[in-house]
Amino acid sequence: MTERRAFDEIMGQGDEADGRPEFAALARWIRETPLGELQRRQAAAEAAFRTLGITFAVYGEEEASERIIPFDIVPRVFTAGEWDGLQAGLEQRVLAINAFLDDVYGERRILSEGVVPAELILANPQFRTQVAGARPPHGIYAHICGIDLVRTGPQDFFVLEDNARTPSGVSYMLENREAMIRLCPELFEMFAVRPVDTYPDTLLETLRSVAPGHGGNEPVCVLLTPGHFNSAFYEHSFLADNLGIELVEAADLEVDDDFVWMRTIEGRVKVDVIYRRIDDDYIDPLWFRPDSMLGIPGLISAYLAGNVALANAPGTGIADDKAIYSYMPEIVKFYSGGEARLPNVETWRCREPEALRYTLDNLDKLVVKLVDGSGGYGMLVGPTATAAQIEDFRAALIAEPHRYIAQPTLALSTVPTLVEQGVAPRHVDFRPFCLTGTGGVKIVPGGLTRVALREGSLVVNSSQGGGTKDSLVLAPPRERQAQSQFQFQGRG
Amino acid sequence: MRLIIQHATIYSFAEPQSRLVQLLRVTPSSYAGQNVVDWQIDVDCDARLKAGRDGHGNETTMLYVNGPIRRIRVAVAGEVLTDDKAGMVGGSPEPLPPILYTRPSPYAAPDRAIAEFAAAALADAGDPLGAMHALMAGIHRRIAFDQAPPANRVRTAAEAFAADKGSYLDHAHVMIAAARSLGLPTRFVSGYLFRSNDDGPRRAGHGWAEVHVPDYGWIGFDAVNDHCPDANYVRVATGLDHGEAAPLLGARTGGGSEYLEVSVSVTAPEVTA
Amino acid sequence: MLSRTAAHLYWIGRYVERAEFTARLIEATIRLDSLAHTPAGKGAWESALAVVGAEWSFAATGAEQGPAPVSRYMTLDTTNPNSIRSCLDHARSNARAVRTALSREAWEAINRAWLGLRNTHNTSGGPGTLALLDQLKAEARGFEGALHRMLRNEASFFVRLGATMERADNTARLIDVKYHLLLPEGEKVGGPIDRDQWTTILQTVSAVTSYRWLYREGLRPRLVVDMLVLRKEMPRSLAASAEEVVSLLNLIGKRTGLQGEADRLARLRQAALNRATLTGIIQSGLHEWLSAFIADNARLDTAIAAQFRFA
C-alpha cells in the first residue's frame, strides 16, 4: 500500500507534467507562478485573516497568543461530475441521519427489526433520555451536518465521520474563498467556479423553515454562543453578522411559560429558532449538567413543548457516534431503500471478538480509534507508530475492546500544497456542509478542505498542525450550466 | 392502603431574585398497585405552571416566577391508594426499554470496590434475584442511615460506598452502581414512604433502586430499610439516577445565598386512627 | 439591541470616564501638593481619596498616606476596584464582549490605554507620574473622538449615556469634598491654600481657562460652584450632564419607541436644575444639596438598568 503513490487530485497518478487533463490549466499555474509570488500571496492571506481576527485557540491575556489556522494558497478542485456524485451521496446520507434520529427518538423501528443492536443505541450516553419521545418542529433533527470525506482515487470517496452536533469550519470555507478571489483572480477566469457565498442566505432560509407553528410573523432566529472565550467564537460572530441575526449568550435568553425570550432594550422578544453552538451537556442546567454556566434553565422544556426549534436538535450525537458509524451503510439502506452511494471506510468493531482478534493481529497496519474520542486524540496510526505505542494500544484494546474501532490505513489523496521547499503533495480531507430544512437538503458547492502540512502525515486536525485550502467546485459545461442555475434560483 | 402525602418546600433568598425557573417531578402516576386519587401542586406566589412529560415517562411541571421574590413555598399534597406487590412494579408507563438502564450515569458509576462487592454477592447467591437481595442487605449493613437530609452536593456511588453512613440517595446509588456492574438494568426511584412509627414530619422524601431482574421484571429494592417496597411506598419519578428523578431542580437569577426548608409528612388515616 | 450589549456599552462609558477623571484628579493633586507647604500636601492626597470615596479602603491596605502610596493605590492597585488600572480592565473586558458593536478605532483606543498601563508597576506620585497620566488622558480623548465618529446609533448613545452619568457623579463628589474636607485647621477661607485648592478643582475638570472666559472676577468659590453646578456652557457641569442624559435617553427612545422611569427621572432632574439658583443651593446647604444630587444620580442609574434590562 505504501509503495504505491497516493492519488493526487490535480496531478493524477500518472507522470504527465500537466496532471489530470481537466485541471491542466491549474497544474500550469502552479508550475509557472513564481514560488516567491505564491509565498507572498499566502502571507497576504494569512495577514488578512489575522487582522480580521479569524483566530483559533484559547483567548488568552495576549492578543498574540491567538493562532490562525495555516492557509494554503493552492486550491483543491472538483469537477461538476465529481460534485454531482458527492451531492447525491451526501443528500442520501443526511436524509438517512434525520430519519434515523426521528426513529430512535420515536418508534425505534430500526432496533426492533434488529438492524442496529438496541444496546448500542440505548445504552449509549449520546442517546439523550431527556428528549426521548419528543419530536422537534417539522421532524428535522440535524439541520446542519458536516460530513467528513476522504478520497483514495478518481471515483473513490469514503465517509470518514458524520458531524451532526455542532460542526464548525464553515467560516473558513467562506473566508478562504474571499481571500482566493482577491489574491488569485486569474484562477476564477481560468475556471467557472460555483459560488459559496450563498451559504449564509441558504442557512437562514433553512433555519426559518423549521420555526415551530406557522404564525404570520417572520420567525426570530438567533445564534447561541458559549461566549467570546470560546475557541470558535470568531465563526459564531462571523455567521451571526452574515445571517443578520443576533449573536446571543445564555444570559440574553430566558424561558417563561415554556417559550424562549430574548432580552432586548425594547423588551422581551420571542425566539423561534436557535442555531446553538453549545453542546447538549451545557445547554440547560435543569435538564443536563447542573454545573453548566452556559446554559438556559428551561430551554429543553420549551423544546419538549414544541415552542422552539434548536439547530441542531438535542440528542443528534447518537447519529455521529463512532460506535454507530460502522452501521451507517445499513442505516442508510434501511431508510433510503438503496445502497449507500457514499461508502464508509471499512471498519472493525472491536466489541466483536473476531474483529478484535483481527485488529490485534494487524495493529501495525491499522488506524485504531476510541469511539468516544475526537480531534485526533486517542488514536493509533499503526504504520507510523512506535513499538511502544502499539503495545500501549494493545493493552488498552484488550482491557476495553468495546471502546475501540479499527480501520485500514487509507492512501488518502493528495493535493499540491505550498510548503517550505516549494509545492509538494500533501494529504487532504473534505468537509462539505449539508443543510436540511422543510425544503429538503441543500449543499452549497464547496466545503472545508483540511490539509496535513507535514510530509506523509494523515492527520489533518487543526489541533495537530493541519491547514486549510479553498475547495473549488466547477460549474457544469455551458449548456447545462444555464439549466442548473435556473433550478437553483427556483429552489432559493 | 390509603396514604395522605403533604410535601412542602420553602426557598428563602438573602437577596430578592429577579427570576426563578424550576423543574418539578412531584406528580405520581397511576398503574397497577398505585392509584392516585387526588394530587395538587400549590405555589404561594404568582407563578406559571406548565405540565409536561420527560423521556422516562415522568410527569414534569415547569414553574416560572418573575421577581422580585425573596421566598417561595411549593406545596404538593394528595392521596394515593397502594397495594402490596412485594416490590414488583407492574403496569407503570415504560417508554424506554430496560436495556437503556444498563448505562453508567454520573451519580451511579461503579468503581472497582463496588464491582467486587457486587460480584461477590452474585457468586454467593447464584442467581440475580438472590444477588439483589444480598446486595440490598449488604448495603443496609454497611451504610448506616443518616436521618439528616442529603447535603447540597449529591455524592457519587463510589464516595457513598467508601463512607460508613449516608442518606437514602447514597443507599440507592450504591445499589444502582452495584447492580449495573453485573449488567442488570437499574434505575433510581424517588417517592414517599409511610412509617407507622412516624415521629412527625421529615425533612426529606425517600428514594430507592429498581432492578430489572430476568424473568421477573422491575423490582424495587430499598437498602435503607433492607426491604422491597410494599403498600407503604409511593413511586413518583424514575431516572438513571437522582439527577434525572429529583423532585425539585431550580435555577434563579439574582445574588445572595439560599435557604431551603423541606417538610414531608405521609400518613395513613386507617392505620394511624 | 440585546440588553446585555447595551449594558456592556454603558459600562464602557462609565469606566473610561472614571479612569480619565481619576487621572485628572491625581494630576491636579500632584500639582497642589507641589505648590503648598506642609501640611497641605498631606491634606491634598487625603482629599483625593475622599473624592473617589476610597479613604477607608486605602486605610485598610495599611499603607502610609503620602504621594507615592496614594497615587499608586489610585492608579495601579488591582485591589482597588476604582483604580485606573481596574477601570481600564473593566472597560476593556466590556469592550471585548461587544467588540463588533464598537468601531475599530474606539476599541483600539481602549486597548492601547489598557496596554499602556499593563506594564507599569510603580508610580512615584511626583512629576514622574505625570507623563503616564498624560498618555492616559490622550487615549481617553482618542476614545471620545472615536465615539463621535461612530455611527449615531444606540451603540454610541449607550456609551455616551454611561460616560455622562459617571461625569455627573464625579463632578458632584469633587465639589462636595472641597467644600467640606480640605482646608487645614487654622487656614483662612480665601487664604493662599484655599485658592490653590479651588484652582486644583478647576484643573481636575480642565476648566481654568473656561472660568476666565465666563467670569470677569478673580477666583471666587461661589462662582466655581456656579460654574460646575449650573452653567450649561461648562461640559462637565451638573446642569450640562443632566441635560445630556435627557437628550441621550430621548435619542434611544426614538429608536426603540419606548419611554420609561429613567426618562421621567432624568427630566425631573433637569427641570429641578433649571429652576435652581446658586443662592438657593447655598442657603439650603451645599453639602446636603450635593448629597441629594449624588443619590438621585444613583437612582437614575438603577432606573436605566431596569428600563433596558441590564441584569
UniProtKB/TrEMBL annotation, chain A:
Chain ranges of the Circularly permuted ATP-grasp type domain: 75-452
Domain of life: Bacteria
Listed Pfam families: CP_ATPgrasp_2 (PF14403)
Listed Polar residues bias regions: 482-492
Protein name: Circularly permuted type 2 ATP-grasp protein
Ranges where the record places region Disordered: 462-492
TrEMBL record, chain B:
Residues of the Transglutaminase-like domain: 160-225
Signal sequence annotation: none
Pfam families (UniProt xref): Bact_transglu_N, Transglut_core
SMART domains linked: TGc (SM00460)
Entry-linked InterPro entries: Bac_transglu_N, Transglutaminase-like
PANTHER family: BLR5614 PROTEIN-RELATED (PTHR33490), SLL1049 PROTEIN (PTHR33490:SF6)
Protein known as: Transglutaminase family protein
TrEMBL record, chain C:
DUF403 domain ranges (all copies): 1-308
InterPro entries in the record: ATP-dep_Glu-Cys_Ligase-2, DUF403
Pfam families given in the database record: Alpha-E
Domain of life of the native organism: Bacteria
Protein name in UniProt: Alpha-E domain-containing protein
